Amino acid sequence: MLVLSRRSQEAVVVGGLDGFEQMLKVIVLDICGGKVKLGFELDAAVPVHRLEIWERIRAGKLPPRRPAGRAPPEGQ
Question: Higher confidence at residue 18 or residue 24?
């Protein structure tokens, strides 16, 4: 597991270089009372789920849903 420290408004980028066509940008939006609010910028066709929902989909207990309500990344 990779562990990184970030402050509010700092980000981490995954992919988007040679051999990795898609890029995921994770931004720390807010830190308050032990909770961290994260923002995710990526292609709107890529599904994003909380782990517990993803596990239920994988187990066949929930149908996969198409991404909805996500704004496209800036500049697109």
Answer: 24
